[in-house]
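Slide 14.
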Amino acid sequence: MMKLLHSYLPRPNSGTAPSPTCIPPSTTHVQPLKSCPRAPHVRIYPPKKGNNECAIQIIKNEAFTDATTQKQMEKAESIPIDAEKIRCEFFNFLRSKRSAEVPLTVEHAQPVLNPLYQDDKPPTNSEAMESCPKANVENFKKLLKEENLYLYTEAGEQGRLPLLILSMKESDNENRPAVVFLHSTRKCKEWLRPLLEAYASRGYIAIGIDSRYHGERASSKTTYRDALVSSWKNGDTMPFIFDTAWDLIKLADYLTQREDIDPTRIGITGESLGGMHAWYAAADTRYKVIVPIIGVQGFRWAIENDKWQARVGSIKAVFEEARTDLGKSTIDKEVVEKVWDRIAPGLASQFDSPYTIPAIAPRPLLIINGAEDPRCPLAGLEIPKARARKAYAEANCSDNFKVVAEPGIGHQMTPFMVKEASDWLDKFLLKQ
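Slide 15: predicted structure.
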């Protein structure tokens, strides 16, 4: 094991300083963004004539905002946004939960021949991922470079972060853009290979990881479920979102030190659980472009509006355990709130979307959801959307924020979503 592989030593004079006490504000890590005119923040599919400036998602001619929500949105827009404070509080919170910090260390790993999926049935090929735009590269497979690595993000078994990195062997000497891809619940980094190959063919360095208690970080089909229940029982880990968010901050330490990556052109995207990981990893401003797919939601809004059932159903075992421990006959909003407070403190309060989504500004942010997704109800995004709209407008970069909802789609990533994400990342990360 070595502190950084020989091939990717830090740039001259860059050093190997540990992560800062607080994630610096975007003015430190983010290159100044060019000014852009005021523009719509939500795309409506199909477009409705006369509604091009509408900030409310419209499906089937019905607005999702009522008079009460409209008042809440107006109030939310009037609240000052201290993005640096929010990012610092989140980073310091994550840091306070670490078992022990370790030096930035990577080691070689072997390819995974039989990936572990925790689904009841083995997943089939993803039409959506297979549809991702690819460059026509002759002898692509021969020219494809694959790296299998472990990055150590903290002490302990779960502190070993498996990486799968794909890129093209033959390229110019210029540093290349990079994109981090994050899988959904019970999947793993190998599931992402169609996306990794597609982006590599287009000149990116494409990185997939196993999130906590998934893939190489799991030992059975119940590892993730067991970790969630243990978190409820003991309160010593955060397997739902936040521990992986820490990994992604440490991953940024590594990626910005690689000689083949342009540290000003690193993007991050993910599906479902991976979309939530991308959203929260954006607290680190070294991620320059963020595209969460079917991941962004309002956790507090769902509790208050009795729309929590679908999200709870995706990891139901931990809520059933909590229901029993709390002496309840059924899972109700009190159980839901107590579980979130225990396994992901702040998720339904100070780190919820109305606060953390606006804190991403002015970096380009594309939120992609299904219009009928019960896990990420569009109505729950109205307040975070209003606050984000204000933040991007104040940064004079309204074009850097967009919300897309695909009509008739529930909790599912589609070819349309993959193409939208691809176009957005290309727009901001590829040199024109």
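Speaker note: The domain at 74-118+148-308+345-429 is CATH 3.40.50.1820 (Rossmann fold).
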